[in-house]
Amino acid sequence: MSFNRSNLCWLVLALITAGYLLFWALLLGATASYSTLESWLKVLMSSEIRHATWLSLVTCSLAAGFALLLAVPVGYLMSRREFRGKSWLDAALDIPIILPPLVVGLCLLIFFQTKIGKVIENGFDVNLPVIEVPESWRPEPEFKSVGEDEFAPRSRVIPMPDDRWKHTLHIPGFPFTYQISGVILAQFVVAAAFAIRTMRGTFQHLSARPEDVALTLGCTRFQALWHVALPAARRGMVAAFCIAWARSLGEFGPILVFAGATRMKTEVLPTTVWLELSVGNLEAAVAVSLFMVLLAVLVLVVVRATGEKV
Amino acid sequence: MIQLEQLTWQVAGRTILADVTVAIPANTYAVLMGSTGCGKTTLLEILCGLRKPTSGRVLLDGVDVTHLEPRERGIGYVPQDLALFPGLRVREQIGFAPKLRGMPIEELNQRVNRLAEQFGITHLLNRLPDLLSGGEKQRVALARALAAQPKLLLLDEPLSALDESMRAEAVSLLQRVQSEHELTVLHVTHSSSEAAALGHLHLRMAGGRLEIDSKV
After folding, report:
1. What's this model's pTM, rounded to 2 decimal places?
2. ipTM of the complex, rounded to two decimals
């Protein structure tokens, strides 16, 4: 084989690639050989880490599911419709990707201190029309729970002068800050940006012609999306879900700032690594890290199987 | 009867269609020719409602359909790439429009089977589009369009992907379909022989204007 300059060029490029992969193999190999299998299993079976694992799996799945629900319509809009300001909107959708993770958490924390955020978390009162109620029907002038559920609407009946009653209905809020729902929200805000990117790419690669034909065959735009575009985009949807899931699994900064790192409550796997490192338990941190590497590799395999690229 | 009245289409300051005015009588097989990029496909897309014209009107049997949605026009459209629905079997492709309209399942199956028989694709009913040849795809696309029972059928170079031997067969199929379904057809092609074999009315587009080609 003649060894010309072109071959030399390919060889250099291959060596650079191999060097990079070798670096990663060494990193993972060193981490894997730090501890024994028995100690990994012992760590992974502890109740705190099992809780963190289950919480991670559940919250990542929910965050990825919500991200996909958002990514499909947004991705479809961005790939199929031309409108003024589209390039600005396109750039804005990528903001969560470029923002430092801690800043995302801080933004969430501050948002829920604003009036809108407080209404979302604490709920609000609705003043119903002042009514005249016969004395025998008058309820106690205090909060009355309509149901057993703590989130059920509560109503308050306040007596007024002239024998009339003011009726206030309390619409409950949904707390996020330092709650499990906060973990899901923190994962969702970043994962959604990646899912939108994936779905936008998926729809861009699919021809719009079949949807046009579906319109002439009697479909509305929604029906064309539902019956034609979505079945064609199902591999992309699997990929978007997996990418959002993997991104959620690795999320740390926003969760730490917004949902906290309370053991057996809002602790997810990346938080576990941080908590274990902070108390000097390197073995546990390594075991959880390797478990996360395994999950990430599984996701990568699934995404590759769909034919999409991360 | 289809009438186009002073139809104009402009994009980015460029006039693609300029005052296109023509009438195509019912049950006529009209053939439209013109150079690449002259606006033939744009005209078809305006006719079936996928694009809104800059100005002008489209009338179907005397009714102004210019502002109607594609689904309200009753126009069948077979694009150049045929645009079969990925992931749907041939049976589902042909039954797509009747199913959308809530046709009872027995009647739907009858219509699908009748069209499949007419187009010689009964043996393909359970296949996915990826497993069909160019000629088979073309038949499925035609059957799918006809299952919606359109008054007007728009064909955008439907035979361009076929080889010479299959093309002759496809030409006779189109002639048969047009007469059996009593359709008005507007067929875009680059092939003079195809146009000569099929066309009752020959149209030519040049410089954004549409003229009746009297030379053929």
Report:
1. 0.83
2. 0.91
